[in-house]
Design brief:
- The chain is of the alpha/beta class and 850 residues long.
- Helix content is 43%, strand content 17%.
- It has 31 helices and 24 strands.
- The strands form six sheets. A seven-stranded mixed beta sheet has the order 18-19-17-16-20-23-24, with helices on both faces.
- Strand 23, helix 29 and strand 24 (798-802) form a beta-alpha-beta unit.
- Helix 10 runs antiparallel to helix 11 and helix 20 packs across helix 21 (568-577).
- The longest helix has 30 residues, at 231-260.
- It is elongated and about 145 Å long.
- The two termini are 60 Å apart.
Length: 850
């Protein structure tokens, strides 16, 4: 709807509201009648009458014409009701555009027909069927009002009656009758039986009206007859229209005649096809279709496809020549053939095999991710030696923000291939992968084939992003459809439901990304090579910020390199106090925020440069949002330091234990998960088995209550890796021997005191290093993970490998317990020390342990 029409509609609604308010205030007749009351028929000229008006869509009514039509618009119904209340006279006029639902006075013609309402019948759905008889022509003199219905002053046009018809008029009447008789002989839609009644009309004007009512023509043509007030002019216009209509009917008859001479009357289907062909020839389509088919057959020959594929495609092309191109089936075939020729058959990229150059590109785009880079370079080396290798299927698994998606783009750049991406997050329909069959309306190939077409080559780098978030429902299982795509033994003949011909995907280099491999279906996981993309360490984040993020954001914000100075110490403060993530997305946002504020200061204060220091960092980013654990130096009873892995990296855990008089109950607080609670119970059972060696009252599990708490109670925690840490905290509380706070540990404990390996060692050790801890106890079987820790951290840390809980105590307790019978510690004493330690320890905690 245009702005002009919107303004008109709003104006009409405003008038209605104003008049309704006036009616309500004055208690008068309905608002519009009150307006109309000021203008009566007596105030108009003698040939002007005021009456309701109904605009008609696609319909023109003539005088002396009786017909019925349906109305449903509120204005039209209101006008009809007003006419029935008064004298049953109404003015009918055609709309210029039949699609206009809310017409205004500019939307209908000025000339119409004054009619008398003969009958009205209500239909279902609030519509009304009206039977009217045309009385005379009329022309709108002026509009009285437009709401709540159209009311206008109409000048009645009296028909000219001739006592003696002039000779020219007689000639025009005869010509019109002759042409109308010829029209009836050619038209299959109008019966010739009406001709005698039409020929009996004596007055020229009425004869033109009657003939026009029987013509199959648009409303605009009939309106031109209606607007011809002079009978002579009316007959001339009618003769012109009849000549045009007769020519059209003759062409149609010629087409039908040509078809009949070519076919057997018994072959109905063949007859219909030839009739369509004749119509196409008449419209000039035939030659274009033949040329297009010849062009497609030439392209098919150039593709040099296997004989079976070529025969199928050729069959589809030839089918198009036997049906109407504008038909629905013709459109489906045309789209199918166009898709076939749009695919990059036998088009391959000239692959980059310069290993040194590829490594330089990968290093330019990303810092770290050494395993990923190493695997790509290995692939390129094998390609260079062998000259051909099926595309590898790599799955990059890691937390958000570590660069999994962007590294795929770098791989494409390093190998010189095209890059296409398909996000699988939330995909639940198998047709997204394989496409729809052509039996469905609007069917298209799946997104795999569509991406190959977009790439323009048979061997792009194809990224399936977020493959761990793929779903399934009643429409199919996309993960099962991906099995064929990602299997090097099957994807050589991948068949899309739409194309229904095999397509070679074996040269495509597929890369998938996931945050976790746990939710990937097992058969799909078996077809991929997993490469871990671990979270960045603080040192790596500092390097990434200095080499990539800061220069990038400075350039994006229109600053010069010398205009903004961010030191390494500032970067570390941003990482530690304003972000908590495994990747660098939030770090990038914070740097962008600093650049914006620096740009504003440079513009407002006209300073040449801005320097960010740890002292003024708060003025750029506000108060610190996070803080990390710094382990206290005071050794405490019942308090040990554990290590945990979270989605945003490692963290330290301060585990508190206290002994209270009671009946042997165990309290576990801090929103611990079931696995963590079971680890605590396993630790108690182990302590009971060695209580004599530790000098602990053998009845402690009956005489005392144990309470274990892990601070930051609002954060859920779970996992077995805190088992050895909780066991040491309980031993310290039961023996009353303080535990060292500068020693951290991790490991799962068994009932016999064995320490089992855990995951996330790299992140845990980095968290210990950040908290100021210099000694870490690790399970013996985790020795292999020490090599994954950055060299600068390894040099500053001391690692002790433990296989049994007995080996932990000499490292943790400040002195060894004496094996002698003893009572439980004084009720509440260790508990008070533990509570004091908890209050004095640094505030921090994991989001999800292990």
């Amino acid at each position: 709807m245009t702005d002009d029409k919107k303004e008109k509609i709003l104006g009409l609604l405003s008038d209605i509201e104003r008049l309704n308010q006036e009616d309500a205030a004055e208690g008068a007749l309905p608002g519009m009648d009150a307006v109309a009351g000021a203008v009566s028929d007596a105030d108009e000229p003698e040939d002007v009458r005021v009456m309701p008006m109904i605009p008609l869509r696609g319909l023109a009514i003539f005088p002396y014409m009786v017909l019925h039509f349906d109305i449903g618009r509120e204005k039209s119904i209101s006008a009809l009701e007003k006419a029935m209340v008064r004298n049953q006279m109404i003015f009918l006029v055609a709309q210029r555009d039949a699609d206009t639902d809310l017409p205004t006075k500019e939307d209908f013609y000025r000339v119409g027909t004054i009619a008398k309402i003969k009958q009205m019948l209500k239909l279902p759905g609030d519509a009304i069927r009206v039977l009217v008889e045309g009385v005379s022509r009329g022309e709108i003199h002026r509009m009285v009002f437009e709401v709540p219905y159209f009311k206008c002053a109409v000048r009645q046009i009296e028909e000219i009656e001739y006592d003696e018809i002039p000779n020219r008029m007689t000639a025009l009447m005869r010509s019109a009758l002759n042409k109308f008789e010829e029209y009836l002989s050619l038209s299959p839609k109008v019966s010739h039986d009406i001709f005698p009644s039409v020929a009996s009309v004596e007055q020229p004007g009425r004869l033109a009206d009657v003939i026009t009512t029987h013509l199959e023509m648009k409303a605009e043509g009939k309106q031109s007859i209606l607007e011809a007030f002079d009978p002579e002019k009316r007959l001339e216009t009618l003769n012109e229209i009849l000549i045009k209509e007769i020519d059209i009917l003759q062409i149609e008859q010629d087409i039908n005649s040509r078809v009949r001479t070519q076919i057997n009357k018994t072959q109905k289907e063949y007859y219909l096809r030839e009739q369509l062909r004749a119509i196409q020839d008449e419209l000039g389509y035939g030659e274009a279709i033949e040329e297009e088919i010849d062009e497609w057959l030439g392209k098919l020959a150039e593709l040099a496809l296997p004989e079976k594929l070529s025969a199928k495609i050729e069959k589809e092309i030839k089918r198009l020549s036997k049906i109407q191109p504008s038909s629905a089936e013709g459109g489906v075939i045309r789209t199918y053939v166009e898709w076939i020729f749009a695919l990059p058959w036998h088009v391959y990229t000239t692959e980059e095999t310069d290993i040194a150059k590829s490594q330089r590109i990968l290093d330019e785009d990303h810092y770290g991710l050494d395993k990923v880079k190493e695997r790509i370079l290995e692939y390129l080396a094998v390609m260079k030696l062998s000259g051909g290798l099926k595309g590898p299927i790599l799955c990059l698994v890691g937390p958000p923000g570590v660069g999994k998606t962007s590294v795929a783009k770098s791989i494409a750049r390093a190998t010189g291939r095209e890059f296409v991406r398909m996000s699988l997050g939330g995909v639940r329909d198998e047709a997204e992968i394989r496409g729809h069959r052509r039996t469905y309306i609007g069917a298209i190939p799946g997104r795999v084939i569509s991406a190959i077409k977009e790439a323009g080559t048979m061997d792009p780098v194809f990224l399936f992003d977020e493959i761990d978030k793929i779903g399934n429902d009643f429409r199919g299982d996309p993960a099962s459809a991906l099995l064929e795509v990602l299997d090097p033994e099957q994807n050589k003949e991948f068949t899309d439901h739409y194309l229904e011909i095999p397509f070679d995907l074996s040269k495509v280099m597929f890369i998938t990304t996931a945050n976790t491999a746990d939710t990937i279906p097992r058969p799909l996981l078996d077809r991929m090579e997993l490469i871990e993309a671990p979270s960045y360490t603080e040192e790596e984040k500092v390097k990434i910020a200095g080499q990539y993020l800061v220069p990038k954001k400075v350039k994006e914000h229109g600053l010069k390199p010398e205009s903004l100075r961010i030191s390494e110490q500032v970067t570390r403060s941003i990482i530690n106090y304003y972000t908590r993530e495994s990747g660098v997305r939030n770090l990038e946002r914070e740097i962008a925020s600093i650049c914006r504020k620096a740009a504003r200061r440079i513009v407002e204060s006209e300073v040449p440069s801005v320097r960010v220091t740890p002292g003024n960092l708060g003025s750029f980013l506000g108060k610190k949002r996070y803080r990390y654990d710094v382990i206290g130096r005071e050794d405490q009873v019942g308090v040990t330091t554990g290590l945990a892995w979270t989605a945003v990296g490692g963290t330290t855990l301060s585990i508190e234990a206290t002994v209270l008089p009671g009946k042997g109950q165990l309290a576990l607080t801090g929103q611990l998960g079931d696995v963590m609670k079971e680890s605590a119970k396993a630790g108690i059972s182990y302590i009971r088995s060695i209580s004599g060696r530790l000098g602990i009252n053998e009845r402690f599990y009956k005489d005392d209550d144990l309470h274990i708490h892990i601070p930051e109670g609002a954060t859920p925690k779970d996992g077995p890796s805190a088992g050895v840490t909780m066991c040491c905290a309980m031993i310290s509380a039961l023996t009353g021997i303080p535990a060292r706070q500068d020693v951290a540990m991790t490991g799962e404990i068994t009932l016999r005191g064995k320490v089992l390996p855990v995951g996330g060692v790299r992140e845990k050790v980095l968290a210990a290093h950040r908290a100021g801890i210099r000694k870490v106890l690790l399970p013996t079987e985790n020795e292999r993970d020490i090599d994954e820790i950055p060299a600068n951290v390894r040099r500053r840390m001391e690692f002790s490998l433990i296989s049994d809980a007995d080996e932990v105590l000499p490292h943790v307790l400040i002195r060894q317990p004496k094996p002698s019978a003893r009572k439980s510690p004084a009720a509440g004493a260790p508990g008070r020390r533990a509570l004091k330690a908890s209050a004095e320890s640094a505030e921090a905690g994991p989001e999800n342990a292990d």
